[in-house]
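Re: zinc ion structure - here you go.
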Amino acid sequence: MGKNDEMNDKERFLNALLLKEIDRASAACPLQTATTEMMDETGCFWPDANYDSKKMAMLAEFAHTKAGIESIRVPFDLCVEAEVLGAEINQGRKNSQPSVIKPAIRREKDLDVTFKPDPKNDGRMKTVCDAVSILSEKYSDVPIIAGITGPFTLAGQIRGVEMLLMDFFDNPDFVKTLLNYTTEVLIDFAKALTESGADSIIVIDPSAGCELLGKKHYESMALPYCKKLIDSIKVPTILHICGDTTPILEKMCETNADAISLDHLVDMKTAFDTVGNRICLIGNINPADTLFLGSTEDVKNETKECIKAGARIIAPGCGIPTGTKIENIKAWIETVKEE
Ligand SMILES: [Zn+2]
């Protein structure tokens, strides 16, 4: 704790999420936190750290112990569930995250809704649950945040986004079946993560953004499934959608998430004036231009702007780029502590 702090990192983070009183803004980070500098210092590198729970926990906690981020967050990528559901994955390298290279469902009959992974035993769902267990046993006063994929994004990963959008016109019943299925899989995963000790779950649904879906289709294709998932989760929840989500801010609130994590393309002040009285806003330092490529002075100035605009948790607008210097991360954290 800093010398003027009245709360520990976990109390402040949870109070911020639940719109309760806080002594100052939180500098937790609900999106990916690993950088190559952290990998070099811990000896825990991608892709290994994505597949080994001990390495995952070590690399994740370093963002807290070394850089000062006021939370610990796992995993580092967004392919955990798709991989367990049979999508073909490129494991990535030291500076690139795993990615889906081949969807699992090529024909409608490939979808087996009776296959329900057991998150505490299967593939990387187990890796992440184990990492959460390690971290939650070690840290009682730092929030452990677990990230999961949104139902729409996961459906796009296992079917292929273009195919999914075609199905939307050709075979809407199949789309509903698929989205119900990904929702059920994610409900089980979130439950296992919570039982493993996660203090908060962030649902990341990049494919549900305005660029691909637009407001009308967000309402029918993404919102109901995301709401069902979030309603099932017993710990405070955060919803992150990439890009400019200004047109769907109200709709994102309807998912019943406790907080919304905003991309840097959203104007924080506008977002605060729209929904800030009823939901916690998180964000939205520009991850690439400011945190990665900017000076410490740039980071400080943007951090101050986020606080002034009404964000209760000050964090990058998306995952931290791996090339980001620890010095710049510290500039963000120290500025939040000073304000
Ligand atoms: Zn994002």
